[in-house]
Amino acid sequence: MEYVKLGTIVNTRGLKGELKIRSCSDFDEIRYRKGNEVFILHEGEYLPFITDGYHELKGFSYIFLKDCRDINLVEKYKGCDIFCDAAKREPLKDGEYYRADLVGCDVYDQNGERIGTCISVEETAGANNNLRIDTGEKEILVPHVKAFVKEVDIAAKRIRIEVIGGLL
Description:
Blueprint: E1 3-13, E2 18-23, H1 28-31, E3 37-42, E4 45-57, E5 60-65, H2 71-74, E6 81-85, E7 106-108, E8 114-122, E9 130-134, E10 139-143, E11 149-153, E12 158-161
Parallel strand pairs: 7-12
Antiparallel strand pairs: 1-2, 1-6, 2-5, 3-4, 3-6, 4-5, 7-8, 8-9, 9-10, 11-12
């Protein structure tokens, strides 16, 4: 099974086992709908759970897990990532893509010269994520914003960026 990261469990809330999640998904309301299956990566193993409640508050997602309505049962998952089955991802509109789809894409500059390969998409505390690109000599970070990322072709596994002075 292939997994897609939904977010990171950053804390618990209250004594009834509610989990606070810093999300990296655009579909939290759908992903955490009561009765859906999620997986928590704990000590190298993907543990399956069924969601039993969801709401948002101050930019965070909060969920309950079925049969885990006790802080003592979920506290050990603080700091763990939470996932869904990739086969159950929501379909996207034309021109949209998942962050994970960017990993493995070749990256080119505005002149068509290959720069390297996108090896990860990193979350920041700011408004945008960064693409980590391995040039073969070093790794660079490129903000994933329209000013830099000019074109993404998932089918061709190709990203075109605008290179400015000091970026490389």
